[in-house]
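Researcher: Sequence recovery benchmark, item below. Answer with residues only.
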C-alpha cells in the first residue's frame, strides 16, 4: 500500500482541494490515520501567525491529528498568481528538499499523507522545475482530478499523457463537475472513460457546499 497520494488536476479551480478532503475522509473511514499537505499555495492571507491559505487550512483541519501549519504548507504566497511568479516577487525559491522533509515528517506520524499540488501538472515552481518534478521527488502515486467542463477531454488526455511519461504511477482519476451547465456531460464522461486507460475513482457532482463526507461517498479507492 502506498504511503500516500499526490493529487493534481487538469487546471486550477478543478476541485483538487474538495477531492483531497474527500479522499482523506474516505481513507479515515477505512481505519487509516491520515494527514494532508499543500506544499505550495498562492492566494494566502496575512495573519498574526504569518500567511495562511484557506485550502491548506482546511486540509490541516481534516487531518487525523493537528500539526503545525508550516509543515502542511511550507511555501505560502500572498498574491493569487502562478507560484513561481509569486516566489520571484517575494525574493525566494521553492525548496523541494524542505518540502520533502516536511512530507517525510508527516509520513512518520500517519498511515497515509495526501499531497495536493497547485494549479495543473506542469505549473512552474521555478526557472527549471515544475509540479511534476515535485511529484517525482516525493515518489507518490498520482491521482488526477478532471474538472468536467468544455475542453476537459483534451486537458485530461494531455495531463494523463504527461503524467504517464514521468517516473510516477498514475493511480486513477476523478471526474469533478465544475460546470453544471455543461452540454452532454454523460457523453463527455464516457469519452474520458474510454480514452483514459486508468482506474476511474468516481464522479463528484456540483454542490453548493460540498463536505468531505459527501465527496467521499462518491469515491472508490482500493488499497
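Model:
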Amino acid at each position: 500500500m502506498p504511503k500516500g497520494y499526490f493529487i493534481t488536476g487538469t487546471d486550477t479551480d478543478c476541485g483538487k482541494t474538495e477531492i483531497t478532503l474527500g479522499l482523506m475522509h474516505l481513507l479515515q473511514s477505512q481505519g487509516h490515520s491520515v494527514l494532508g499537505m499543500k506544499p505550495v499555495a498562492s492566494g494566502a492571507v496575512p495573519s498574526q501567525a504569518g500567511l495562511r491559505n484557506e485550502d491548506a487550512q482546511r486540509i490541516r483541519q481534516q487531518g487525523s491529528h493537528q500539526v503545525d501549519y508550516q509543515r502542511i504548507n511550507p511555501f505560502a504566497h500572498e498574491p493569487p498568481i502562478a507560484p513561481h511568479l509569486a516566489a520571484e516577487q517575494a525574493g525566494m525559491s521553492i525548496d523541494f528538499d524542505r518540502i520533502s522533509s516536511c512530507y517525510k515528517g508527516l509520513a512518520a506520524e500517519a498511515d497515509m499523507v495526501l499531497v495536493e499540488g497547485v494549479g495543473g501538472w506542469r505549473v512552474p515552481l521555478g526557472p527549471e522545475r515544475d509540479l511534476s518534478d515535485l511529484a517525482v521527488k516525493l515518489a507518490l502515486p498520482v491521482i488526477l482530478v478532471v474538472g468536467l467542463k468544455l475542453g476537459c477531454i483534451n486537458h485530461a488526455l494531455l495531463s494523463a499523457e504527461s503524467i504517464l511519461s514521468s517516473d510516477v504511477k498514475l493511480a486513477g482519476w476523478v471526474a469533478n463537475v465544475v460546470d453544471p451547465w455543461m452540454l452532454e456531460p454523460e457523453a463527455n464522461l464516457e469519452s474520458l472513460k474510454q480514452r483514459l486507460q486508468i482506474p476511474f475513482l468516481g464522479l463528484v457532482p456540483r454542490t453548493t457546499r460540498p463536505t468531505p463526507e459527501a465527496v467521499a461517498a462518491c469515491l472508490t479507492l482500493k488499497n
